[in-house]
Amino acid sequence: MANPPTFGVILAGGRASRMGGGDKPLKRLGGTTILDRVIAVLRPQCVGLIVNANGDPSRFAETGLAVVADSVPDFAGPLAGVLAGLDWVAEHEPGIEWVVSVAGDSPFLPSDLVMRLHAARLEAAMPLAQAQSDGQPHPVNALWRVDLRDDLRRALVDEKVHKVQAWTARHGVARASWPVEPVDPFFNANTPEDLTRAAELIAAGKRV
Questions:
Q1: H-only helix segments in 21-65
Q2: With 80 as the cut, is the pLDDT of residue 207 above it?
């Protein structure tokens, strides 16, 4: 059974404090940026992609993707990025009912992410689905229903709910699991040491 059309939102709005500033997705690994690696894996799985990031959008110009800023101020966290993506899709792609979000600093994302998230939410009869690896949830690597965006906005703006799990729990969320060998597909490059480790894994030919 084919997946319903799904739009991809790459969350690139983090402050990168542990990386020493700058944009983590634009750090280079093996001759290309982490963001380019994310795009290459996600593009075949989606009907279109956008980048969620705040500040000057021109720094992502080479991707050719639309850059959408948070509509909720003061760095409200990843849920604000998800909301920005849902709102953009509702306005520009009104026929699309599903959005997948991914962390923009994850260089090893799986090529079956969207397929398995849809399978998980169908099997569990849930409106949302999240990825996990070795029992560890990865709440921003997730599948979202566009028609939940108004409730998400209320939670962020009126209720000040910023934790992903706090909001998804009220609707119900399925989980799709991946192994962490030979490499964790949801490895985040959060620190310079993580970048070094990711480069070593790439050089060793490790793949999800």
A1: 34-42
A2: no
Q: CA 185 → CA 71, 105, 172, 197, 201, distances in Å?
A: 29, 11, 24, 14, 12
Residue 193 burial by Cβ neighbours in a 10 Å radius (0-12, 13-18, 19+):
exposed
Calculate the CA 51 to chain-centre distance: 9
Specify the amino acid at residue 50: I
Question: Where exactly are the structural domains of the chain?
Answer: 6-203
Cis amide bond preceding 182, omega within 30: yes
pLDDT digit string (tens) for 58-70?
999 999 999 999 9
- Distant-in-sequence, close-in-space partners of 45: CB < 8 Å, separation ≥ 6: 6, 8, 100, 111, 113, 114, 115
Map residue 132 onto helix, strand or coil: strand
- The token pair that represents 127 in the structure block: 């409106």
User: Within a 13 Å sphere around the CA of 188, how many CA atoms are in the beta-carbon half?
Assistant: 19
Domain at 6-203, CATH class: alpha beta
* Cα–Cα distance, 155 to 99 (Å, whole number): 19
Q: 176, 135 in Cβ contact below 8 A? A: no
Q: Report the phi/psi class of residue 30: left, alpha or beta, with left for phi > 0 and alpha for psi in -120 to 50.
A: left
Higher pLDDT, 147 or 15: 147
pTM above 0.70, yes or no: yes
Asked if residue 108 lies in contact with residue 185, where contact means CB atoms within 8 angstroms, the answer is yes
Q: Is 153 exposed, middle or buried (0-12, 13-18, 19+ CB in 10 A)?
A: middle
